[in-house]
Amino acid sequence: xxxxxxxxxxxxxxxxxxxxxxxxxxxxxxxxxxxxxxxxxxxxxxxxxxxxxxxxxxxxxxxxxxxxxxxxxxxxxxxxxxxxxxxxxxxxxxxxxxxxxxxxxxxxxxxxxxxxxxxxxxxxxxxxxxxxxxxxxxxxxxxxxxxxxxxxxxxxxx
Length: 158
Hints:
Elements: E1 13-17, E2 20-21, E3 25-32, E4 41-50, E5 55-60, E6 72-78, E7 82-90, E8 95-96, E9 103-107, E10 115-119, E11 132-136, E12 145-148, E13 151-154
Parallel strand pairs: 2-9
Antiparallel strand pairs: 1-3, 3-6, 4-5, 4-7, 7-8, 7-9, 10-11, 12-13
């Protein structure tokens, strides 16, 4: 397949390892673009919620400003749960892929201010499933919000 700026943009697949880590540990992001995979530079972003727009922003990670030749990127000393995306570029003029889907790296906290319990406790839930969310802890004012695609909604609208 020949890719041109008018063609559909390929969507990279981002993977993270590990997806659960202790605060301060390192995490490796890997970004795969559909064949042919040669010649791409990779850009790495943290997904940051933007409550004022009920959406989120992609913040380019330090060390990724000009892209990386390697399709993997190590983040050292991650301290909190975060979401990441990647995208790739190549050619002259530069052709950019789409952004990958968001992948989350979950960080444990030995003294959480709040704890969210999901019941049933399953790795995967489907849109037709009923789930119970329970927030416990000795802090007040916690809110549960849901991301669907690029949209953010309050639980009162579900």
